[in-house]
Amino acid sequence: MKLLVVLLAAVSLCAGEDIPQVPGDNSHYVEGVSRYIWMPDGDEVPHLVDLHEPVDESVLNERNGANNEYWLFTRRNPNSRQVIRRNDVNSIRNSNYNGGRPLMVIVHGWNGNGNSGMNALIRDAYLAVADANVIVVDWRGPANGLYNAAVRAVPNVGQFLGDFLVWLINNGGGNWNNVHLVGFSLGAHVVGNAGRRAGGRASRITGLDPAGPQWGGNGNALRAADGQYVEAIHTDGGFLGIMDPIGRANFYPNGGRNRQPGCSNSNCSHGRAPYLFASSVRTNHFNGRLCNNLNQAQNNQCTGANLRMGNSILNKRGSGLYGLTTGASWPF
Ligand SMILES: *[C@@H]1O[C@H](CO)[C@@H](O)[C@H](O)[C@H]1NC(C)=O
Predict the structure, then answer these.
(1) Which domains does the chain have, with CATH numbers?
(2) Is ligand 1 within 6 A of the CB of residue 26?
(3) Per-residue model confidence as pLDDT tens digits over 259-302
(4) Got the DSSP string for 253-317?
(5) Which of 54, 186, 213, 329 could form a disulfide with 109 if both were Cys (CB 3.0 to 4.6 A apart)?
(6) Is the Cβ–Cβ distance between 199 and 218 less than 8 Å?
(7) 25 CB under 6 A from ligand 1?
């Protein structure tokens, strides 16, 4: 009997680890080690992801950035999209796109699409403060399905987006100094690749809790040089988000990790980033303080120079690690 117990224990150890049972709770998760993680979809519903699951290469050929859709919203059409198609100049002419106005591009994450709540949250905030073009990118094909396959598709999806933006500005007018790319989770790495493809010309890139699993040390991750100014806002570092300061300026609200105030799990902490950003666009009230190092940021002990987190200011610049405390509910 004793032998059987020992044997069973050994078998379960070899098999890897127990499958976590509480949806959204990633307290078991160790970065780079754990096989399973609960990951929220575009509707903030957590799904269990197997990080060891192999990717079927043929899927990558079918699901790529060629199918990206670009949905334009402006103050003249704040809720109903106008679809702009690359190489179809009439799709620009027949839309409300105005090259003289700022351009914000919003990119969703895993298992999301253009209708995911974070898009409208950020779109509405920006149109409330700026007479602008907002383009919501729908990359639902590659984004939906295996997480590992979505990760692999990110560079290609980003390159298509970068090429689209170059074409849009060349044909519809626009100014790279007025371009702000914003991506959530996997979308943060998509906008990084898009910015790189466009030669780092975009004035701002904002990564909202850039995805962590499979991204540590990944050369396709969002980088500080992908735009003129790249900001990362970390809210679930070490779990669904990445803790590494991959932006030029990196904000670690409330320590940059689970649990964010008012959250009971990592699913909620990760999803907090788009809310903090949307709120910052409306009222620019988050005052970051420069940290000496990551440890100080994680312990929320930063007391150095001020830099606002997020906001809509197109020529914002800065660098370093920043800490701050937020509230537990809107507007945080
Ligand atoms: C996941 O987080 C979202 C908020 O971001 C919340 O609405 C949802 O209820 C959470 N789900 C679970 C199972 O924790």
Answers:
(1) 55-324 (3.40.50.1820)
(2) no
(3) 999 999 999 999 999 999 999 999 999 999 999 999 999 999 99
(4) ETTSSSPPTT-SSHHHHHHHHHHHHHHHHHH---EEEE-SSHHHHHTT---SSEEE-S-S-TT--
(5) 186
(6) no
(7) no
